[in-house]
Amino acid sequence: MEIWRLPISASQRGKLISAGYTSLSSLSSISSSDLARELKVSESEAMNILKVASHSRGSETSNASCSIVEGAQSAWDMLHDEESLMHITTSSADLDNILGGGIHCKEVTEIGGVPGIGKTQLGIQVAVNVQIPNDFGGLGGKAIYIDTEGSFMVERAFQIAEACIEDMSEYNRFLRKDFQECKIKMLPQDILENIFYFRICSYTEQIALINYLDKFLSEHKDVKVIVVDSVTFHFRQDFDDMALRTRVLSGMALKLMNLAKRFSLAVVLLNQVTTKHTEASFQLALALGDSWSHTCTNRIVLYWNGNERYAYIDKSPSLRSASAAYSVTARGIRNSSSSCKRIKMM
Amino acid sequence: MARLANLETEYPVLDSTVRNFCASHGIFSVEDFLIHDLYMLAAFAEQNNSSERLKEGIAQVLSIIDDMHQPWLNGMELLEDAKRNKHVFPTGIQGIDLLLGGGIRVGQLTELVGPSSSGKTQVCLRTASNVARNHLVLYLDTGNSFSPQRIAYFLGKTINPSSAQAKNQFLQKVMSNISCHSVFDIFAMFDVLHQLESYLRCQDGRGDCQMRLLIVDSISSLISPVLGSSSTQGRALMTSAGYLLKKLAHQHNLAVLIINHTVGGEGGYSKPALGDSWKCIPHSRLFLSCDRGSNNYNVSILRHPSMASGKAARFVI
Known about the structure:
The complex is a heterodimer. By secondary structure, chain A is of the alpha/beta class. Chain A folds into two domains: about 10-55, DNA polymerase, domain 1 (Orthogonal Bundle); about 85-335, Rossmann fold, CATH 3.40.50.300. Chain A has helices at about 10-20, 30-40, 45-60, 75-85, 95-100, 120-130, 155-175, 190-195, 205-220, 235, 240-265, 290-295, and strands spanning about 75, 85-90, 105, 110-115, 140-145, 195-200, 225-230, 265-270, 275-280, 280-285, 300-305, 310-315, 320-330, 330-335, 345. In chain A, the strands form three sheets. In chain A, strands 4, 5, 6, 7, 8, 11, 12, 13, 14 and 15 form a ten-stranded mixed beta sheet that branches. A two-stranded antiparallel sheet of chain A has the order 2-3. In chain A, α6 (about 120-130) packs across α7 (about 155-175). Chain A is globular and about 75 Å long. Chain B contains 14 helices and eleven strands. Chain B is about 45% helix and about 20% strand. The radius of gyration of chain B is 25 Å and the shape is elongated. In chain B, the strands form two sheets. In chain B, strands 3, 4, 5, 6, 7, 8, 9, 10 and 11 form a nine-stranded mixed beta sheet that branches. In chain B, β9 and β10 (about 295-305) form a beta hairpin. Chain B folds into two domains: about 5-70; about 80-315, P-loop containing nucleotide triphosphate hydrolases (Rossmann fold), CATH 3.40.50. The interface between A and B is large, with 70 and 77 residues. β1 of chain A pairs antiparallel with β5 of chain B, so a sheet runs across the interface.
């Protein structure tokens, strides 16, 4: 029953089937006015249905022999593309090490942890660090910060931006031995200007915004990171229908994956924790359930170990499981200052 | 199936007399024809004035229907087909290959189920790198988790590099056999499978490097957004996706590997997602899990056509 495969509305599909059209070939020889008459829909709707049907059929006949399917890339080409992809540094060398250079572009990274561990701080740091110019090894891009909890503090972002610029001048002084005045022309205000901030107050707004991002990103092609802080907040309360929640979350995750791939940007989702009761013990796990935990590409869990903050790679297609310590300072996320800060391999 | 009116252009026998006769019995499309009692219809046709034309029309519709079904095969033909075409591909992971008696089988749909981060994508990448040495592989990726780095790593482990250039050439040859395509909704997946079908139909005539492995990572991400709402469309999409994959596997001699995730069941145990309707669709189902914090993975058989379910093994990646 090939009509099931067409992306048309349920009522149109119902009308097609009750009128006897159940396969794509049956739609091939009919004109749109006849179809409109039989289905009792408007002519433009009938034309739309025929267009969708012929598109599905057209992809069958126009098959180039060079690639198996249109749009597929061979693994060899992807290997070379991957080598040229940049990463977004987190300003903590240990954390960057276990992440293989930083947050990866074209992937969705989920970062979760207990309250107070520094998720928002990490989000702001990433939104600032993505703007580091190419000369200094950064992406030179802009950032989108989607705030659902209201935890974004502009003064803190200003502080982190200032510290980032100071670090860049330090770097400049050490590495550029020429005595010219290569002063950094960036100001903290410029960094703040390049962060697009959206404040979300309900889950419908969240979904609407993710849908709108497609158009926004086509107009602002230099956005290189989307930070959602936090993706959980509006889905935890007010949701009676768990099945609806699963559907909405899976759909949202796929859209974010699509954006990450098409526009070559990194998506960072901050998540909260919940307790899971397994085998008579309570364990902390990331919120939103098992279906959601399947949808991200990478997952980093932030936790306390004694007095130290640690980050642990929970899920990754290419990175080894490891944990590293980091700290939250007045200048942002930095390496932990304790004496034994060796990276623990699992 | 089209309405009888639309078939007239191809089969002029089905002209208006035949159609009016059928309409008088409530038959407007070929499906209505199938549900109707044909003996009664033939008897009424006898009594009609233009009974010859009507009987010709009925015979024509019946021959159209006959063309629609798959040809009959007997046991010997099936056995011949199994011996000649339906090989077994080793995954390259010793524990799994031993458990499955060789590896994954061509012509069957194998599902890997497991909680998050239990090694499913890694098993797929390993299998892809193994099969790509001699055949073409198509990897459909929904979560941007295809890692060419990992493929290169797995391939690097299996050869002794005589020189960097030889290694490079080997990598290029094998990795060019793997095509990766990102799909982000279920309709896009149907489009891709449709294109794949026409590609495979042309391929069956050629003798060179053929496509033998299709991986969908993961099919549950594509089905979750549509499954479970008040309409039944989601479940219909899910079952038709399953049948399409099985048809491609059997008719074009592909091994199909798909990934599913788990959800919480009663008693706190994880069970595979997508529900009971999906349970019977894959031929084999393997449950993967990982010991926390180590490289040891467990795999157990939930369902397999020729191995006992419940058998388990450990493996390392």
